[in-house]
Amino acid sequence: MALDISQLEEVIKNAKNSDIVKKDLRKALRGVSAAIRTLNQAVEDMDAILADDYQPVAKERKPRTVTPGGAKRGRKPKNPVPAAE
């Protein structure tokens, strides 16, 4: 039982197509795995937040910097009011 050339070509073509499909499946599987890991981390975070003994961490804020000359922060008014005499 011998294979003829057309059958051999068909087998090689199917093997190449299967390699492409396997590559695409691996890529999709990596994306799904990353999404599952992210979801698991989010569930763990929510579980910790909803625990009875949860205490939120106070956010550390930077001190305000003092500008030379005591300039005020923010935008200057469009029509400055003249000083009352």
From TrEMBL:
It comes from the Bacteria. This is Histone. Residues 59-85 are annotated as: Disordered.
